[in-house]
Amino acid sequence: MSPAASPLRPEVPPHASILVKLIAMTVIVVAVIVAGLVVYFSSRELRFRAEEQLSRVSAYGTVLSTQVRSAVATSDRSAARDMLSSLARDPDVVAVTLFTEHSDLFHSGTPSPWVERTRRGVTRLQTLQADDRVAVIAPVRPAQGPGATLVIELSSARIRSFRSQLTTTGVGVGVCAFAFGALAAYLIARSFVRRLRAIIDVARTAAHDAQPRTIEVTANDEIGALGHALNDMLIRLHADRARVHHTVTELTAAEDQLARTNRELEKRVTARTSALSDALDKLQLEMRTRLAIEIELRQAQKLESVGRLASGIAHEINTPVQFVSDSCTFLATSTADVLRALAGYRAILVAVEQRTLDAPAALAHSQALDAEHDVSYLAEQIPLAVQRSLLGLERVSAIVRAMKEFAYPDRKDQALSDLNHALTSTLIVARSEYKYIAEIETQLGDLPSVMCHIGQLNQVFLNLIVNAAHAIEAQRTYGTGKIVIRTTASDDNVVISIQDNGCGIPAAVLDKIYDPFFTTKEIGKGTGQGLAIARAVVVDKHRGTIDVTSQPGQGATFTITLPIGGYRAEQITEQL
After folding, report:
1. What's the CATH class of domain 27-172?
2. Distance (Å, rounded) from C-alpha 481 to C-alpha 472?
3. What is the DSSP string of 259-279?
4. Total Cβ atoms within 10 A of residue 359
5. If DSSP states are collapsed to H, E and C, what string results for 359-384?
6. CA distance 527 to 556
7. What fold characterizes domain 410-574?
8. pLDDT tens digits along 69-78
9. Is 217 helix (H, G, I), strand (E, B) or coil?
10. Least confident of 75-84, 141-150, 186-195, 522-531
11. Has residue 91 got a pLDDT over 70?
12. Maximum mean pLDDT: which of 8-17, 155-164, 501-510
């Protein structure tokens, strides 16, 4: 490697010189073209001569087979010889044979061995090539007598000789073309390889020169254009090198400044991260506190609803308790009479056993006791009083159980619950609100257990049922209205609808009914929180939907749709 050579690319070795490549490429191209032309024209000339010979022998067969008909008909060998002797003027004719099935009429030259196989005659004129010969086999059909066969054979020797001449000529032309191409390629390549080497020398030293060198351009051809382009590139390269050096210096300074800035930012980020971590801890604490407050508020609202219904529930409990009290008072009085009558019966039995009282007297005393204490009446009324007491106690137990299920604090996690049972319990709790206002019709379908917060849904059902009763009370001046509660299962959801025939909801406020503290009821009858809580529980807590359809003066229908599988993501949020 020369001292000026680039350390990244070695000098081109002599055997890889572009001069050698150009000469070789030119010679190969010229040789291929000349060889192709020689082969093409030689093949064309040989094909032409072969076709001419084949056409000539076919013409001989056609013409002479017609001329010798008369000689064949008379078996005149002399006439056949005279007619066929004209073929001797053609130097390619090597054999002529005219024969019938049983004898030869004319024979000239040395026929091919296969000629004998055609003695039995042919039906049409045929041409063939065999044993370096071209032959025609022509049938001769005289007007009378047996037919004959004429075989004329031409030698292909002259064509073979011409092929050899063409080969020799082609080789000579190829050698001359090869030599001419090599010389021309050398002269052409040498003229611009020298200029290319000058360009290479300048390009190799450009990386080490303090000042840019330029290439001397001596011609306005492609290499000259390359020289001009390289000169421009070298000038730009020198300018770019200066700019790069300046840029590297600036980048080094900027990198140092960036490192200092990064260290400062790391300190600030550490301080800010610590502050954010503390803020996040406080936020999580506030979220847990807020969640606990929300749970307490929901429970308080539920207890508030229970308190609002307390007087009605007390009345509901008081009625069966009064039945039990009256029945127990009757049983206490009746028990004293029964005990006195029982003591009289025992005294009569003792007197009968001691034979101080005969049977008719004992019967008379017993009948007197029955009449005195009205035993027949007591026997009839005591079982009825016991039954009334049991029914009253069962009614009280059902009301208390419904109150317990309704007011029981809700669980943190969703659980499988029976919505039909929850609706039934809520109707028992709210009975005092609708007992004198509306009839209840329940159409409860066959529902699967639903994953939900059943305590929250109880509050929703109570709010909607109480609202329906208030709407009917505001609409009707006499008689009772009707509240229809339906439940159905559809695909992966359950649907609960609560329909009333009350006053309905005006269209102007239909979009506001879920707003907190919005109410159309008179003061003291509503706080405006019922539907807001219902929407929060159904939509936010259970990812369900709550829809309303209403016609003023005809009533309203609230439809709740809940997923059967619940919404587990809400539990994850509540655990924060």
Report:
1. alpha beta
2. 6
3. HHHHHHHHHHHHHHHHHHHHH
4. 8
5. HHHHHHHHHHHHHHHCHHHHHHHHHH
6. 20
7. Heat Shock Protein 90 (3.30.565)
8. 777 777 777 8
9. coil
10. 522-531
11. yes
12. 501-510
CA-nearest of 453, 454, 417, 493 to 574 is 453
Cα–Cα distance measured from residue 138 to residue 87, given in angstroms and rounded to the nearest whole number: 15
Of 542, 429, 433, 440, the C-alpha closest to 494 is: 542
Query: Which range among 11-25, 281-295, 533-547 shows the weakest confidence by mean pLDDT?
Result: 11-25
Mean pLDDT of 413-441: 86
Q: What is the DSSP letter of 440?
A: E
Domain edges within the chain: 27-172, 330-398, 410-574
Spacing of C-alpha 202 from chain mean position: 61
Q: How confident is the model at residue 312 (pLDDT cuts 50, 70, 90)?
A: low
Nearest CA among 543, 538, 539 for reference residue 565:
543
72 contacts 147 by C-beta, under 8 angstroms: yes
**Reported confidence tier of residue 165, pLDDT bands at 50, 70, 90:** confident
Better pLDDT: 295 or 167: 167
Cα distances (Å, whole numbers) of residue 210 to 32, 204, 234 = 50, 13, 12
How far apart CA 536 and CA 364 sit, in angstroms, is 79
Residue type, 265: L
C-alpha angle with apex 84: 80 to 89, nearest 5 degrees?
155
HSE-up (13 A, CA, CB side) for residue 307: 6
DSSP label at 561?
A: E
- pLDDT value at position 4? 42
3-state secondary structure of 452: strand
Residue carrying the six token digits 């009825």: 384
Token output for 166: 């063409």
Amino acid at position 352, single letter: V
Which of the 8 DSSP states describes residue 541? Answer: I
What are the start-end ranges of the H helices in 408-453? 419-429, 431-434
Q: How far is CA 274 from CA 33, 123, 261, 270, 429, in A?
A: 85, 116, 20, 6, 53
Least confident of 47-56, 167-176, 456-465, 518-527: 518-527
- CA-based torsion, 26, 29, 31, 37: positive or negative: negative
Report the C-alpha gap between 59 and 48 in whole angstroms: 16
Q: Count of CB atoms within 10 A of residue 33's CB? A: 12
Could you tell me what percent of the chain has a pLDDT over 70?
74
The answer to whether the beta carbons of residues 92 and 55 sit under 8 Å apart is: no
Per DSSP, the residues of 152-192 read EEEE-HHHHHHHHHHHHHHHHHHHHHHHHHHHHHHHHHHHH
Cα–Cα distance between 261 and 406 in angstroms, integer?
64
Q: Indicate if 410-574 has the same CATH topology as 27-172.
A: no
pLDDT digits (tens, 9 = 90+) for 343-392: 777 777 877 777 777 777 777 777 777 777 777 777 777 777 676 666 66
* Amino acid at site 237: L
Tokens of 209: 């020169």
Burial class (CB in 10 A: 0-12, 13-18, 19+), 444: middle
Write down the pLDDT at residue 196: 72
Quickly tell me which residue has 């039934």 as its tokens: 424
Contact partners, residue 554, CB within 8 Å, separation at least 6 = 501, 504
Lowest pLDDT segment from 339-343, 375-379, 509-513, 563-567 = 375-379
